[in-house]
Amino acid sequence: MSNALDTIDKKILNELQMDASQSLDEIARKVGSSKTPVWNRIRKMRDAGVIKGQTALLDAEALGLEACFFVLIRTSEHEADWQKAFLETLHSRPEVLEAHRLAGDIDYILKVRVPNARAYDAFYQALIAEVKIHNVTALLSMEEIKATTVLPIDV
C-alpha cells in the first residue's frame, strides 16, 4: 500500500507516530483536513496493515529495567526443528524486546532489557537450557544515544 499513500496519509501517519493520543480533530487540523476523512483514512490504513496497532511508550529505567544488553548469537544448528524451538523460546521471553536474524558471521541479535547483570545471567542460563547455541556474546549498552519508534516517512 505504500505506493497508494498520498501526502495526507503520510502526514496522518507522522502525526500518529509523534502522538497517537491526539484527537481526530487535532490530527485533522494539523494535516489540513476534517475529522471524518481523517478517520476513514486511518481505518483504511489499519485494514491494509500499514498501522499495526497503538501502544504506550514506557520508560524502562523508571520501571527498574536499567540494563540493556545486545546479545549476539552464533549457532551451528540450522534445522527447522531447532529454529522452531529457538523462535518459541524467544517469543516466550518478555525480556527480549527485539530479535533479528542476520546475514554474516552472527546468526541472530537480540535486544534484551533486564534490571541488572544478575537478571541477564538468569535469562542467559534459561536460554541455553532451552536451546543449543554454539556461541553467545553479550554487549552491555552503557548509554542509549538514540531510540525512536518513528519511521522516516517523506511527506
Automatic annotation (TrEMBL):
GO biological process terms on file: regulation of DNA-templated transcription; response to amino acid
CC annotations in GO: cytosol
Keyword DNA-binding: yes
Record keyword Transcription regulation present: yes
PROSITE patterns per UniProt: HTH_ASNC_1, HTH_ASNC_2
Keyword list, A-Z: DNA-binding, Transcription, Transcription regulation
Domain HTH asnC-type: 5-66
Pfam families with a match to the protein in the record: AsnC_trans_reg (PF01037), HTH_24 (PF13412)
Organism: Actibacterium pelagium
Gene3D superfamilies, A to Z: 3.30.70.920, Winged helix-like DNA-binding domain superfamily/Winged helix DNA-binding domain (1.10.10.10)
Name of the protein this chain belongs to: ArsR family transcriptional regulator
A GO term for molecular function: sequence-specific DNA binding
